[in-house]
Amino acid sequence: VTLGRTPVPKLMANVSEQALHYPLGDRLPEIGSTIEVAPGIRWLRMKLPFALDHINLWLLRDVQRGREGWTIVDCGIADERTRSAWETIFANELQGLPVLRVIVTHMHPDHIGLADWLTRRWSTPERECRLWISATDWNVARGASQTSAGTGGTGGDSAADFYASHGMPADAVAKLRLRTHYFSDLVPAVPARYRRLMDGMGLSVGADDWTCIAGYGHAPEHIALHCPAAGVLIAGDMVLPRISTNVSVYDLEPEGNPLPLYLRSIAGFRSLPTETLVLPSHGKPFTGLHERIGQLEQHHADRYAEVLEACAEGPKTAADLLPVLFKRPLDLHQSTFAMGESVAHLHALESQGRLHSNGGAGGVWRFTTVV
After folding, report:
1. Cα–Cα distance for residue pair 187/286, rounded to 1 Å
2. What does pTM read for this prediction?
3. Residue 7: predicted pLDDT
4. Is the pLDDT of residue 14 over 80?
C-alpha cells in the first residue's frame, strides 16, 4: 500500500513536460469546485497531507436505470477536510442530482479512503449507492482497513523487518515499527459489498461506453477507464505526467517482481490513440500518451543502468542505492516508498540475470552485478 510516487529530477521533468500538451494550461479547480474537461466529465481536486499534496478526482454525468445523477471516480482520504470539500461539491456542483455510484481505480488510501462514507452518504432505503472496484483491490483494502497492524510497507513489525533485511538503518526501522495504524487511519472502513470491475469489461456511463483496462505493478489490480467516443482515459496512477508511478516490493510479497508487470501494463496503453486526453490522479490533464509511455520506459531503463553501475562496484543493499535512485533527502514517509522501489529494481534485474544476490546471508540482502 503506498501513496508514494517517484520524484523526477527537476530538469528532466521540465524537458519531459515540454513534449506533452496541457489543454487546460495552468487552470486548476479550486477545492470545492470543478472544471469540465470534456462533455459530462468534471475535474476536482482534494488536498493530501503529504509531499504529494493533491489527488485528482472525477465526476461523470450518468444515468442508471432511468435515474439521472453522477458517478464519482476515486474518493480522497478519510479526513474531515476532504469530507467538508465533498459536501461543498454536493451543494454546488451536482445540479441537484444524486451520486449513483462510486468507482475506485485502486485500493491506495488516497483513492479509496472515503468510499465507505460516500456510498453510505448517497444510499437510500430504495437504492444503494454501490462501490465499483476490482475484486483484488477490494479484498486487500478490506483486510487492511480491519487491522491495526501495519500492512503492505506502511509500518509495523513485518514492514520494519522486511526493510531491515534490505539495509534500512536501525533508527528508521525503529520508527517504522511504531507506525502501526497508517492504512486504517486513512481508510477506516471499506464497503462490505461491491460491484466487480475486470479487464476488458464495458461500462455504460450516461450515453457513453467506457472500457476497463487492468494494470499491474503499482496496485494489485488497478483499473483505468477509457472512453473512445470522448477520447478520454482516466488513467489513475498508471500514467502520470510529471512524476513516475511508485512500483514497490512489500513485506507481504517479499519476492515480488512488480516492475516488469508495470512496464508491460503501460506498454498496453499504446493501443489507444496518441491524442487521447489523459486524466491522471496527480498532475494536470494532458495529451501525448505515447510520448509519456516512452519517457517512463526510458526513466526505468536509466535507473536500471544506475543500479548496475553501482552494484558493479561491490555488493549493494536496497538502502545503499537510495542516493543513487533518489537525488534528494527523504523523510520516513518517503523512505518506505523509496526502499520498496529500490528493491523492485533489484528484483527486476536479478530476474533478467544481470544481478545476483547473496540469498539474504547474515540477515541482509546484497546484490552484485553478474560478470
Report:
1. 29
2. 0.94
3. 44
4. no
